[in-house]
Each structure stands twice: as structure tokens, then as C-alpha cells.
Design brief:
binds guanosine-5'-triphosphate, globular, binds magnesium ion, Rossmann fold, alpha/beta
């Protein structure tokens, strides 16, 4: 199972970036989902960028809701908007953001479209410390899994 790790500075903030295998549920059925679940719950995750396929929102959103319920600090990235548009689908990004109550951005990552907004939202989220989990992670005396 391929889990890639790397380091990136986003708006001057250093991040370790972990790319998890594709998953559709926090109740793991596939091996990919098992690996993703243990990464999300077992590591000091500062925040989660949940990349979902704009053409398959119905299949993706249950996991989005599970991530929100799990209290993970989340930014949702609705990607592949180009293909969605090509088949006549229009995604209401601000509407989705209102309904979900977490930041939502739209992207076409193969062409870098929306990347700037995504970086801005990630940096703003981390600086805002809006989530108790993230606040706990930032405490010097933090406990693992807090
Ligand atoms: N048209 C289009 N294709 C995209 C976009 N983003 C990614 N792709 C393509 O989608 C395919 C899958 O991309 P990946 O980055 O492997 O997707 P993934 O979600 O990491 O896949 P898993 O790790 O297998 O779950 C690749 O062929 C990408 O080039 C996009 O915004 N538009
Ligand atoms: Mg992948």
C-alpha cells in the first residue's frame, strides 16, 4: 500500500504532507481504507485535505460527513471540476460550504486551477486554530491521539 510523505511550506508554514490511499468510508472495508483510517486516527494529524471527485459527490460525501463527525480539522477540495463541467454538472461550492460548515474549495488540480485558494484556506485554517483538536496538537504538552 502506497503512502507518500513529504515536506512542504504552504504560505510560509512548514507541513509534513501525507498522501493516503483512496477511501470512501471511515469504517474500513478495503485495505486502502484500513491504512487511511489508522493514519487519520493514529497520527498527530494537524488537518485533513479531503479531495473529492466533483463527478461523484454522492459517493464521496458520506466520508466527508464521517470526517466532520470524527472532529478532524478539515478542508474539502472538490476536484476534477473540468470533467464535471464537461458532462454538464455544476457544483455549488459556497452552498456546499454553508451546508457542511467546513471550508470547501473547487479545483482542477491537473491544471493547477484553485491551488492558490486551497493553499490560502489551509494556511488560514491552521493559523485560525478553530478546531479543539488542532489546538490540542499545538500545545507543547500534547498527548498522542489527543
Ligand atoms: N481532468 C482532470 N483530471 C484530474 C484532475 N485531478 C486529477 N486528475 C486525474 O485523475 C487521475 C487520478 O489522480 P490521482 O491523483 O491518482 O487520484 P487519487 O485520488 O490519489 O487516487 P487514489 O490514490 O488511487 O485514490 C489521474 O489520471 C489524474 O491526472 C482534474 O482536476 N481534472
Ligand atoms: Mg492517491
Amino acid at each position: 500500500m502506497e503512502v507518500s510523505r513529504g515536506f512542504a511550506a504552504i504560505r510560509g508554514i512548514p507541513f509534513e504532507v501525507i498522501d493516503t490511499p483512496g477511501a470512501y468510508s471511515l469504517v474500513p472495508i478495503t485495505e486502502e481504507e484500513r491504512v487511511t483510517l489508522s493514519l487519520l486516527l493514529g497520527e498527530d494529524v494537524g488537518m485533513v485535505v479531503h479531495v473529492i471527485d466533483a463527478r461523484n459527490l454522492r459517493r464521496m460525501l458520506p466520508l466527508t460527513l464521517q470526517l466532520i463527525e470524527a472532529g478532524l480539522p478539515l478542508v474539502v477540495d472538490v476536484n476534477i471540476l473540468d470533467e464535471a463541467e464537461r458532462i454538464g454538472m455544476k457544483v455549488d461550492i459556497p452552498g456546499l460550504e454553508r451546508e457542511l460548515g467546513v471550508p470547501v474549495v473547487g479545483t482542477v488540480l491537473t491544471r493547477g486551477i484553485g491551488m492558490d485558494v486551497l493553499k490560502d484556506r489551509v494556511a488560514a485554517y491552521v493559523q485560525g486554530v478553530t478546531s479543539p483538536r488542532l489546538a490540542a496538537l499545538r500545545r507543547p504538552d500534547r498527548a498522542r491521539g489527543a
